[in-house]
Structure formats: C-alpha cells, structure tokens
Design brief:
DUF4872 domain-containing protein; 2 domains; Cathepsin B, Chain A; two-stranded antiparallel sheet; globular; DUF4872; BtrH_N; alpha+beta
Length: 332
C-alpha cells in the first residue's frame, strides 16, 4: 500500500499541491503554492447565478492555481477526463495500483466523510486518492484533519456530479517533479500576475474595481430587488466568503502568509511588511461578514444598513488597492 503523508490545509486546491508535491520530495507550503499560483482574486458576476443568486468569488477560478504552479516549478502532470464512470474508475485503479497518488476533482455533496451540514452542491473540490483497501478508496482530503476512506459508489457520484463545473471524472497526477527549485522566479511571476488581476483588468467586475462594483450593488439591493431577495443576495456573498473553500478573508490571510514566507526566503523586508497590511485587510473582510450576517438576520440593534455595508466594502477596496499597488512596485 502506498504511504502518503497527509497534512491538513486551509484550501483544497493549494492543499493538494502541497501534499502531492511533498510526496515526491518537493517541499512547498500551502501559502507558497497559493502565491506562486496567483490564487488571490475578486470577482462579482451578477449574470452568473449560483442557486439563483449572483456569484461572488474571492479566488481565481478552479484549476488555475494548479496549472500555474506546475508550469512555474517545472512539474509535468498527466490529466484526464472521462465520458463514462466505468472508464474513469478503471483508469484510477490502474494508476493507484502502481503506487501513484491521484488528485481529482469532485463534488462535496457526495463525500460521506463530510458532516451533513457541509455537504452542498459544489463541484470543484480537490482531493487525493492514494490507494485501495477492502474495496474502499484511501483518501487524503486536505481540508480534513486525517486520512479517510470512501466507497466505490459515492466516489463515482462525486466524480460525475451534474452541474457547473462538471468534474467529468477528472483525475491528475505528476509524471515528473523536480526535487529542488529556485523559488525566486516563480514568486516574482506569481506576484506580478496577482497584481495585474487585482489592479488592471479593464472590466468593472474584477479585482479592486469589482469590490467597488459590488459595494454599489449592495447599497441598492433593497430598492432594486426587495427586502427578501436582498437578504438572499447578501447571504450568498457571506456564504461565498466564509464557507466556500477558504473564504474571502481566509484567502487574504493565506496570501499574506505567502508574502511573509517569500520575504523571509528572499530576505525582503518590504514583502513581509505588505503581508502584515494584507492581514489587516483580511480582518476587515471578517468584520464585513459579521455585520452582513446581522443585517441578514434583521438584527437592527446596531443600526447597520445595506448602505453601511456598501461603505465597508468601499473601504476594503481602498485598502486592497493600496496593498497591491505597493506590492506591484516591490523589487524582487
């Protein structure tokens, strides 16, 4: 049976990268993977509905972190999707029989080791299957505190869940991993890309402009869509921030940890200082979620309004813009 060193992480995609690469002798922390992959982002997409309400994202789209890290560190990956569950499970069995841990995309809803309250229809969750025992698959899910198992039927359902994005049995595994890499170039490339996405995308829905775009919409929610839908819209912003993956504030804290680690590695004090500034921005996001939750529950004792929430978001946008403008000018 393949031995696999499992470490619990904050986010599934960057966690799988860290755990899987470590298995092959390439030591990389989860924050470093997240930073090199330029995972930090913001987007508010009113035309992309999630369960009938506008979608908000605090990180780059699923799969992007993985592909960028592999490219920048010189890791070669094998990746497959499948038209049928039988072919997908046969391919998985063949690879793990060779002692190769396999990463895969799955739906959270069909993972029985998750508590019922955490099982919802989210099809971009990443995990590692590293073996098979008594008909069950051995699983390293990076957001769990220890390894676990899953039966054949539930794994098939998780790999072939319907809805966007359809996993289609996606599985991937490294075929070539360098034991040592020079992180300076990948760190520089990751920071440059993150600054571009946060500051320079011309469309108003993305980056710091996207936070301001959302702020204006939040202020108008009650007048535009009515109190009931306003509550649903606001609730989804909180859910996407605090429950999906690592959450908006969590991704800010993780990127701040990357900047601290990069500053230590490159002996760059400014990177460390900017990391502290971004940690403070993460605290602002947490405060926003708390206040928004009170508004959703109509707890008016603190007299918080949708207008106040919009102003909180505008302040967050200003602070994030300061951080990324400063970061874009750092010499690495």
């Amino acid at each position: 049976m393949t031995q696999f060193s499992h470490t619990q992480t904050a986010h599934c995609e960057s966690g799988v990268i860290s755990n899987m690469f470590r298995h092959y002798g390439l030591e990389i922390s989860e924050p470093m993977a997240f930073g090199i992959g330029a995972g930090i982002f913001f987007g508010h997409l009113p035309f992309v509905k999630v369960n009938g309400v506008p979608g908000t994202t605090y990180r780059i789209w699923p799969g992007a972190i993985f592909s960028r890290v592999c490219k920048r560190l010189g890791v070669k990956m094998e990746s497959h999707k499948f038209g049928s569950p039988d072919k997908a499970m046969q391919a998985l069995d063949e690879v793990i029989a060779k002692g190769i841990p396999v990463g895969m995309q799955s739906s959270v809803y069909y993972l029985p080791y998750f508590p019922a309250s955490y099982r919802f229809h989210f099809n971009a969750h990443n995990l590692v299957v590293y073996g098979k025992e008594n008909g069950d698959y051995l699983v390293s899910d990076p957001i769990m505190d220890t390894v676990t198992t899953i039966d054949h039927e539930n794994l098939v359902q998780a790999r072939f869940a319907k809805g966007f994005p359809e996993p289609k049995g996606k599985m991937y595994y490294p075929v070539s991993v360098p034991k040592q890499v020079d992180f300076r170039g990948p760190i520089r490339a990751g920071i440059k890309q993150a600054c571009y996405y946060m500051l320079k995308i011309p469309m108003p829905m993305f980056g710091v402009k996207g936070i301001r775009f959302l702020a204006k919409r939040v202020k108008d929610y009650p007048a535009k869509v009515g109190d009931r839908r306003a509550g649903l819209y606001l609730g989804n912003i909180i859910r996407m921030q605090e429950e999906i993956g690592t959450g908006g504030a969590g991704f800010r804290f993780m990127y701040a940890a990357f900047l601290q680690e990069a500053g230590l590695l490159l002996k760059n004090e400014e990177l460390k200082a900017i990391g502290k500034e971004l940690t403070a921005v993460g605290d602002l996001w947490r405060n926003f979620a708390f206040s928004a939750g009170r508004v959703c529950k109509a707890r008016a004792a603190d007299n918080m309004s949708y207008g106040d929430l919009g102003n909180m978001l505008l302040h967050i946008a200003d602070e994030e813009e300061k951080v990324f403008r400063r970061l874009s000018k750092v010499k690495i």
